[in-house]
Specification:
Number of domains: 1
Number of helices: 14
Shape: globular
Helix content: 25-40%
CATH architecture: Alpha-Beta Barrel
Number of strands: 18
CATH superfamily: Metal-dependent hydrolases
Strand content: 15-25%
CATH topology: TIM Barrel
Radius of gyration: 21 Å
Bound molecules: (4S)-2,6-dioxohexahydropyrimidine-4-carboxylic acid, zinc ion
Length: 424
């Protein structure tokens, strides 16, 4: 049992100075001047902000056949150090999560090692459409992931005739898509195969490659009013497509942005080389600014997720064509965004909306995303005034590196509770 005293509780719709009592895994009481009960540990939160734990709807925690990059323990340890209390793991693991057997195998390993709550996606394949409706009934399945274009792993769902089937037969399940056009990627790969400068990545997978797939899948989703979620949106064109369909009344459409598209541009290849290689790639300054201004500030973007995708230094140090795509971020993402709050570019309420409230609402997790009596005690206590440098020492991911090393930020996560347990 814990009593958090003297802090300011922040939800997406406002803030108030309130004490918070945690009992039996839940937020049991919220009020003014609560008295500590016998056996209760009191946490002094004066001058601090009490936020609902973040829900990162897009992580690759590796483990099983890729545990040299990350495992569920190291990945979720990184998560809690960033104020994240729930993660949704992608299905492009080894083995891929595409049937009952691979799902059970993953969940068993999660139970053994994860230290925050972890739900999982199942991947759509041309061969598992018959079993998806049954598979997604599992309470720990967050949704379906469909790779419309290929990325790390071998999950590919690029047959457009099947997109209609997927979205019409799974209307009540959230379908998250990696929207890049496979045929355009293949054409460009052939065209630029002799170029080894990592910057070519942003040409091979250009804005048009993302826009083509995004527009097409949104059209299909709109037809069925399917629960469609555009993962890692990186371009102004996708943003305008999502905006257009939301304005047309497509309320089941949602989208996310990730830190690498908000904090890096193609100018950063000079310094970061293949470490910056990611799918979809980093874009121009114009795209980055559109994500902040038209995306986040104007409310088109629903969720800030990370696409945490660790690979080892040895893997990333290879030639462009061999280096895998992806970078870690589950730990760094919170403090990066909190720095924008500190700079006055984002309200603390908006931070909570993008990280906790909206993910819970869109993925229909009714027991979290808000600091309220009766909900799960998933809580992060932040000191938002504290200068904070991202250093290698602080990082918990097994991959041991970050493109954000050396970034001067503001905000420190000081305590984290997962279902009422103090894990940090
Ligand atoms: O860059 C990426 N890395 N994009 C993805 O879609 C997958 C991820 C990974 O698993 O490495
Ligand atoms: Zn991903």
């Amino acid at each position: 049992m814990f009593l958090i005293k003297g802090g300011v509780v922040v939800n997406h719709d406002g803030r108030k100075e309130l004490d918070v009592r945690i009992n039996d895994g839940l937020i049991s009481e919220i009020g003014h001047d609560l008295e500590a009960k016998e056996g209760e540990e009191v946490i002094n939160a004066a001058g601090k902000f009490i936020l609902p734990g973040a829900i990162d709807v897009h992580v690759h925690m590796r483990d099983l056949g890729a545990s040299h990059k990350e495992d569920y323990k190291t990945g979720t340890t990184a998560a809690i150090h960033g104020g994240v209390t729930t993660v949704f793991e992608m299905p492009n693991s080894n083995p891929p999560t595409i049937d009952q057997e691979s799902l059970e195998l993953k969940l068993k390993a999660v139970d053994e090692r994860a230290i925050c709550d972890m739900k999982v996606y199942v991947g759509a394949t041309p061969d598992n459409l018959d079993i998806l409706p049954e598979l997604t009934k599992h309470p720990r399945v967050a949704g379906i992931k469909a790779y419309l274009g290929s990325s790390t792993g071998n999950l590919l769902f690029d047959n457009k005739d099947l997109w209609d089937r997927l979205l019409s037969e799974n209307k009540d399940t959230l379908v998250a898509v990696h929207a890049e056009c496979e045929c355009m990627i293949n054409q460009n790969t052939e065209k630029f195969k002799d170029i080894h400068d990592p910057e070519i990545h942003s040409v091979i997978r250009g804005n048009d490659v993302a826009e083509a797939a995004t527009r097409k899948i949104i059209e299909v989703g709109f037809k069925h009013n399917a629960r469609l979620h555009i993962a890692h949106m990186s371009t102004k064109e996708e943003l305008f497509a999502v905006k257009e369909y939301k304005e047309k009344g497509y309320t089941n459409l949602s989208c996310e942005v990730c830190p690498h598209h908000l904090f890096f541009t193609t100018n950063d290849y000079d310094k970061l080389s293949t470490y910056l290689r990611v799918n979809p790639p980093v874009r121009s300054k114009e795209d980055r600014n559109a994500l902040w201004e038209d995306g986040i500030a104007l409310g088109v973007v629903d969720i800030y997720a990370t696409d945490h995708a660790p690979h080892t230094v040895e893997e990333k140090e290879q030639d462009y064509w061999k280096a895998p795509s992806g970078m870690p971020a589950v730990q760094e993402a919170g403090v990066l965004l909190m720095s924008k709050v500190h700079e006055g570019e984002l309200s603390l309420e908006k931070f909570v909306e993008l990280r906790s409230f909206k993910p819970a609402e869109i993925y229909r997790l009714e027991d979290r995303g808000y600091i309220k009596e009766g909900l799960r005690a998933d809580i992060a206590i932040w000191d938002i005034e504290k200068p904070f440098k991202i250093t290698k020492d602080w990082l918990k991911s097994k991959c041991g590196w970050s493109n954000y090393e050396g970034f001067d930020c503001f905000g420190e996560v000081q305590h984290v509770f997962v279902e009422g347990e103090k894990v940090l």
